[in-house]
Amino acid sequence: MKKVVIGLSGGVDSSVAAYLLKKQGYEVIGISFKFISEFDDSDARRVADKLGIEFHTVDYREDFKSIVIDNFIKDYEEGLTPNPCSICNKNAKMKFLYDEMIKYNADFIATGHYAKNDGGKLYRSADLFKDQTYFLASVPSKILSVTLFPLEGLEKEDVRNIACEIGLDVYNKKDSTDVCFISTNFKEYMMKHAKMIKGDIIDIDTKKILGQHNGLSLYTIGQRKGLNIGGMDNRMFVVGKNTKENVLYVAKKDTNDYLISDECIIDSVNLISIHHPTFCTAKFRYHSKEIPVILEYLSNNQIRVKYNSKASSVTPGQTCVLYLGNECIGSGIIRKIYKNNEELWYL
After folding, report:
1. CA nearest neighbour of 81 among 326, 298, 333
2. How far apart are alpha carbons 76 and 285 in whole angstroms?
């Protein structure tokens, strides 16, 4: 009997994944990670008892804070817009599961992600809307090669139906959609934890000062609401952040194309496929439109990504994920943005 360690959060996805693994004949060990003080493992414990599997809660708060939370805040303070879920899967969640696998002398790790794994190759899940390869693209091949995704052929409705049929009371539990370590809203969290220095909001076209921002970390590229510049809020949106001068740049949405670019540089590249194509497709945010791109492989683990169709709101700090057909071939962090061969200085 093969042994598998599964990340068991107490949500419907990981719960059904654990059930399916046991049904397939695996010896299943459920692990809940305590990443924040407010963590509650009661749902996960009830699921483990119902399924009759071994269960443990492991306190990783200190490591999670240094690896994910501190870097999340640091990136925002430097004017970036990070993706904490990608960072977590790469450096925390999947790595911690891998460590637990070794600890328990298991053969595999597993999660309730919607994705397909074939010998370390990552493919989209059957439920394309729920597909989570975007968040898994930064996970090293070493870990993916021993990872199972039991939900790979299922859609969300199927998963809830299975949970209901086997009597799991989490069958209708709401999906988690927010950043897991932010229990309040984003603004309140950043006001409490990040350095906040007020500065000017400047119209990038007229160079006029329109108002004051409360700290650059509170704003994201493309943001339109909550700028507090009087009656102009509905007509202006964020196009850039100058951290050296502490300036927030805005522009009129109907008269400019400041957020349009045609290439970017990504670094911290993680290629998980044997295919290193020149032509493929890319996503620059989780639910963004996938577009055709041309890849130029550079030194220092960087790739120049060119997209002739042009894209909007490609943002430094976000994750660029690459696909070749149905296969997810890797990812990188967006660092520099270009349009017409010129770097966009305001980003």
Report:
1. 333
2. 17
**239 and 249 in contact (C-beta within 8 Å)?**
yes
Q: Which of 189, 162, 195, 204 is nearest to 19 (CA)?
A: 162
Query: For residue 148, what are the β-bridge partners?
Result: 110
Stretch 319-336: mean pLDDT:
96
Q: State the catalytic residues.
A: 88, 180
Q: What is the CATH number of the domain that holds 128?
A: 3.40.50.620
Confirm if 332 and 317 have CB atoms less than 8 A apart: no
Mean pLDDT for 241-251 is: 92
User: Considering only 51-60, 244-253, 307-316, which range has the smallest mean pLDDT?
Assistant: 307-316
Check whether residue 214 and residue 66 sit in a common domain. no
**Is 228 a member of any domain?**
yes
- Domain at 320, CATH number: 2.40.30.10
| Angle in degrees, 0-180, between the axes of helices 186-193 and 70-77, rounded to the nearest 10 | 90
pLDDT of residue 287: 84
Beta bridge pairs of residue 80: none
Alpha-carbon distance of 224 to 236, in angstroms, equals 6
The answer to whether residues 217 and 114 belong to one domain is no
> Where is the domain boundary, 206, 226, 252?
252
